[in-house]
Amino acid sequence: MSRRCRKYSKKISRAKTKYDLQSIASTIQSELDRRNITYDEALTLGNFIQNRADQLPGNSIVYAVSDRDAYRRTLEIYLRDALLTRTEQLLLWEERRRLGITDEEHDRLLAQLLEIWKSQGKSITIQRFEKAGGSSNA
Q1: pLDDT band per the 50, 70, 90 thresholds, residue 130
Q2: Close Cβ partners of 68 (under 8 Å, ≥ 6 residues apart)
Q3: What is the pLDDT of residue 132?
Q4: What strands lie across the sheet with 135-137, from one edge to the other?
Q5: Per residue in 3-20, pLDDT tens?
Q6: Predicted pLDDT at 27
Q7: Do the beta carbons of residue 2 and residue 41 sit within 8 Å?
Q8: Euclidean distance between CA atoms 105 and 52, whole angstroms
Q9: Start-end of H helices in 15-102
Q10: In the chain, what's the furthest Cα-to-Cα distance?
């Protein structure tokens, strides 16, 4: 990892708020855009930012080049039509497996997105599985 990336790692470790992390993430994005750091370095730092964000209070989403942000974008695409089908949930499960996103991270991110959309007056229907093989809508 470059000296510049080690500097950002220290800043991420010391960040006290999600706002601080978002500011660092924005700077990293600018560095990536200017090609001062590689995509892999930005991704590593972004994943570190997401892990640090989990340790801080608050329910806000931190947007950073990261596996979690890639997953969030995919989740938003599936939610765009206000319906999350069982098929989409299976595809999301596969995407989580590929990106290393835990079920807890998925649940937290989904709750955050639903809260944002609810505050905008939108409602989302999520098809649910039942153990007996049936389904219900939430």
Answers
A1: low
A2: 47, 50, 99, 101, 105, 109
A3: 46
A4: 83-84, 125-129, 135-137
A5: 888 999 999 999 999 999
A6: 97
A7: yes
A8: 13
A9: 18-33, 39-55, 67-79, 86-99
A10: 55
